């Protein structure tokens, strides 16, 4: 049985320098362990908020590492250093704005500043790239909102089949 590769990319100047521990990337891993029953492994990296480094890393995770899915965390706000969405758009062939729209809608239930977040998603060749916020609580909420569409999206774009723990997450696959 093949192991599904999923990229987990934390974009943070301070975490990349070891100033603080990356708890956001670990939260993505925890959520995926709850949701995915297929054999999977992560390709995990922490990098600074530099657009060229983000683009290069996304390209490597997709094209060389063979990740069918990449989750980024961090760099989606309105500050000058927040460039993850721009990097994602530059490496993708197709954008899927519905992911960001749904994540912001979900986050608005909890905080009015969710409208400041610029998460997005797109397809690079056969890889789905999803930008998540940087806060662990928001990460879980946002993945929970969009994950029901992810397995079917991966089947459509690359033929990847991800099985899920139906007691933890209900996914949609048309019949």
From TrEMBL:
Reaction equation(s) it catalyzes: molybdopterin + ATP + H(+) = adenylyl-molybdopterin + diphosphate
Pathway: Cofactor biosynthesis; molybdopterin biosynthesis
Residues in coiled coil: none
Protein name (record): Molybdopterin adenylyltransferase
Family membership: Belongs to the MoaB/Mog family.
E.C. number: 2.7.7.75
Domain MoaB/Mog, chain residue ranges per copy: 7-153
GO BP, sorted A to Z: Mo-molybdopterin cofactor biosynthetic process
Record InterPro entries: MoaB/Mog-like_dom_sf, MoaB/Mog_dom, MPT_Adenylyltrnsfr/MoaC-Rel
Isomerase in keyword set: no
Pfam families: MoCF_biosynth (PF00994)
Classification of source organism: Bacteria, Pseudomonadati, Bacteroidota, Flavobacteriia, Flavobacteriales
PANTHER family named among the record's database cross-references: MOLYBDENUM COFACTOR BIOSYNTHESIS, MOLYBDOPTERIN MOLYBDOTRANSFERASE
Protein's job: Catalyzes the adenylation of molybdopterin as part of the biosynthesis of the molybdenum-cofactor.
Highest taxon of the lineage: Bacteria
Family matches, as SMART domains: MoCF_biosynth
